[in-house]
Design a protein that fits this description.
The protein has 127 residues and is mainly alpha-helical. It contains five helices and two strands; from the N terminus they run ββααααα. It has a two-stranded antiparallel sheet with strand order 1-2.
Length: 127
């Protein structure tokens, strides 16, 4: 992020930061478990709007750390799990995998599969 300098007088200048981009509404207003409950009651009108998978994974990690997922009760863990499922658009099984990754490693990282699949036996010249 770059800093902008705004000239307020001939002698002094004031440092101002640019306005941040509009945030995802799931990230902007949810601070407590009561906020999560009220959001889930209106869940049928929500759609995840993430620009990238990395941004979504970061949001999941921040949400788990914000609510201190490890120390929540069983019912509250289920509430956060449903919130992550609706907010991310991922399946319940995928959210469970990400939560287990957060619990075991302390972070949620994307693992991209870079294998090429099956090894080619014949070249195009052989065919």
């Amino acid at each position: 992020m770059t800093l902008l300098y705004k000239k307020t007088s001939s002698i002094h200048s004031q440092i101002t930061r640019p306005q941040p981009a509009p945030q995802n509404p799931l990230r902007a207003f949810i601070k407590t478990l009561e906020d999560v409950r009220s959001l889930l009651s209106q869940a049928d009108c929500l759609e995840p709007g993430w620009d990238s998978k990395d941004e979504c994974y970061r949001w999941i990690e921040l949400t788990l750390s914000h609510f201190k997922y490890r120390s929540l009760s069983k019912g509250d863990k289920g509430l956060i799990r449903r919130y992550l499922t609706i907010g991310s658009g991922y399946s319940r099984a995928q959210v469970t995998r990400l939560i287990n990754q957060y619990i075991s490693k302390g972070s949620v990282k994307r693992r991209q599969c870079t294998t090429r699949g099956f090894q080619t036996r014949y070249t195009k010249a052989d065919i």
